[in-house]
Write a structure and sequence with these properties.
alpha/beta; S8 family peptidase; 12 strands; two-stranded antiparallel sheet; Rossmann fold; 30% helix; 8-stranded parallel sheet
């Protein structure tokens, strides 16, 4: 993560005492392990897979994603992008990293219904549904993420790992309103990672919408693991790139807490640095440009 923080110029925020404090972030994933990097900052946990009351992660993916957003473990020289943010964990994927669309839909619906109490500002969805999914379920998923957006919650989704090639962004990443994130360093992936070079999902969508909007580091990311309370792990994918941007938005919302999702997206658009030769995304995002947009 030290490499990632340098690449996105995160120190600009930290030098100004901006760490994402007080920003509530929902993570829809495999759950979260009681890692020392999250101590005292996980506000709630809901299990839509087995309905267990106690927080857990039987895969490790969700813990890794949560760490990228805002973990903080000085003894391991580890810090996520927004180490002051607060977490709400929604387990929608099982031990194999698989799940049902209805679990994701139920979780987002519950977030919106209970948000007067929880005050969640961002939803991170490092989950991708394949094109082969039932069309009705696809549409329901797209509708619910746009609904959450319309209710004042920024939704960030991964572009999926089905690239290269056009129209390979997974659901719900193709949703029009939300912010979709791909990996800028997907060409660095090797077969040992289980990902092919150029794995990041690429647009445009069938409706000719540019997706993903933003590319962020996603390959060989060191974050929290589930082996021990201080354990770390290395993972790659757009699932790792999306929480980098989620953390950046948490920094933005600490500084400008009254921004609507549309205003957030407009600030990101104004701050973006175009990537030459890549017309299928807005570009790359830096913290300093974002905070000053």
């Amino acid at each position: 993560m030290n490499r990632v923080l340098k690449l996105v110029h995160a120190e600009y925020a930290y030098e100004r005492n901006i760490y994402g404090r007080g920003v509530h972030v929902a993570v829809l994933d495999t759950g979260a392990f009681a890692h020392a990097a999250f101590e005292g900052r996980i506000i709630s946990f809901q299990d839509y897979v087995y309905a267990l009351p106690q927080m857990y992660d039987d895969n490790g993916h969700g813990t890794h994603v949560t760490g990228i957003i805002g973990g903080h473990l000085p003894q391991a020289r580890f810090q996520g992008v927004a180490p002051g943010c607060l977490f709400h964990i929604y387990k929608v994927l099982n031990a194999g990293g698989n799940g049902k669309i209805r679990s994701v839909i139920m979780a987002i619906d519950d977030i919106v219904k209970n948000n007067q109490k929880n005050k969640i500002k961002i939803i991170n969805i490092s989950v991708g549904m394949a094109e082969s999914t039932e069309k009705t379920d696809q549409n329901k998923l797209l509708d619910i993420v746009d609904y959450a957006w319309s209710k004042g919650i920024v939704v960030v989704a991964a572009a999926g790992n089905n690239g290269p090639g056009e129209n390979t962004v997974t659901y719900p990443g193709i949703a029009k309103k939300i912010i979709t994130v791909g990996s800028i360093d997907d060409r660095n992936a090797g077969s040992r990672l289980g990902l092919k070079k150029g794995y990041s999902g690429t647009g445009p969508t069938k409706e000719c919408i540019i997706k993903p909007e933003i590319l962020a580091p996603g390959t060989n990311i060191r974050s929290c693991g589930i082996q021990s309370q201080n354990g770390m792990a290395m993972k790659s994918g757009t699932s790792m790139a999306a929480p980098v941007v989620t953390g950046m938005i948490a920094l933005l919302l600490e500084r400008y807490p009254d921004l609507t999702p549309t205003e957030v997206k407009l600030k990101l658009y104004k701050a973006i640095v175009e990537i030459k030769g890549n017309p299928n995304c807005w570009g790359f995002l830096y913290v300093d440009r974002m905070l000053n947009a």
